[in-house]
Amino acid sequence: MTSIHKTLILGSGPAGYTAAIYAARANLAPVLLTGRQPGGQLTITSEVENYPGFPEGVMGPEMMEKFREQAARFGTQIHDEVGVTVDLSKRPFTVTTEGGATFQSETLIVSTGASALYLGLPNEKALQGRGVSACATCDGFFFKNKVVYVVGGGDSACEEANFLTKYASKVFLVVRRDALRASKIMQDRALKNPKIEVLWHQNVTDVLDVSKGKVTGLELTHTLTGEKKVVPADGLFLAIGHKPNTELFQGVLTMDDKGYIQTVPGKTATNLPGVFAAGDCQDSYYRQAVTAAGSGCMAAIEVERWLENQHH
């Protein structure tokens, strides 16, 4: 028979591991399934300098390995498995993995994260953390006095471009059309910033790494004429959106129109009693490691109290 766990955590980024640490210390004996990208988005980030407690900075993969070790130290059962089906229609909840294993639990913490949308270029993924980034807040500091390009025309792109002017010597905003989709205030900030130049009707069609190891240039293609040109660049920032990894819960958990799980304001409880969501799968606003970790802590505390109320 499959044993019934007190809590099952799906996902192993800062939210999932922090939830596991708190749940384990509360004697809930949590089980954690790492998912398709163990460690989450931080494993494709180079150096992390804005997480408290690491004054000299820390490599993303190293930090997530420390999170994992800490969760395991307190007794979390960690399985490198990917959940592919869930049955939340009755308790205990049931999750079946890609490997065919079945887990049952009284509560579920969903911390499956989100994935940045990319252009789909061959060199793009290979140069992540080597000049290609989807988070200006995370990586902008590394581009002091550099020339960077931001792809996108919405609020996020304008916000990222403005943020990068704190560090970069020049920021080019690459826009496919002849207008920005951003709100009026964000457009004004970007268009009036002397360090930002908008390149209208342009697509990035290749990322170049002449030095074999970091971004050195981009190929731009005009969307109307098809004319191509190569420009020197030190960095490429993608700001075309994020996609929450919540497909597994479509039609089961309440989500917004972009697929982010909706939780009770100020808490991590979802529309289903006993199911909680933490981290980037429910946060489209902050999307930072430290806020994800905080929500993981919240989810574990809510699980503990929810179980106490059920048992009493």
Structure, described:
The protein is α/β, with parallel strands linked by helices. The chain has helices at 14-25, 60-73, 122-126, 136-139, 155-164, 184-192, 289-311; strands at 4-10, 31-33, 47-48, 58-59, 77-79, 83-87, 93-97, 102-110, 114-116, 132-133, 147-151, 170-174, 196-199, 202-208, 217-222, 228-232, 235-238, 242-244, 275-277. It is elongated.
What key attributes describe this structure?
alpha/beta; 5-stranded parallel sheet; 19 strands; elongated
How would you summarize what this structure contains?
With 312 residues, this protein is α/β, with parallel strands linked by helices. Helices cover 25% and strands 27% of the residues. It has helices at 14-25, 60-73, 122-126, 136-139, 155-164, 184-192, 289-311, and strands spanning 4-10, 31-33, 47-48, 58-59, 77-79, 83-87, 93-97, 102-110, 114-116, 132-133, 147-151, 170-174, 196-199, 202-208, 217-222, 228-232, 235-238, 242-244, 275-277.
What portion of the residues fall into strands of 2 or more residues?
25-35%
The H/E string reads EHEEEHEEEEEHEHEHEHEEEEEEEH
* Count of β-strands: 19
Estimated helix fraction = 10-25%
Largest sheet: 7 strands, mixed
**Which term fits the overall shape?**
elongated
Low-confidence stretches: none
Rounded average pLDDT: 93
Rg over alpha carbons: 21 Å
Structural class: alpha/beta
Q: Please report the number of helical segments.
A: 7
Distance between termini? 26 Å
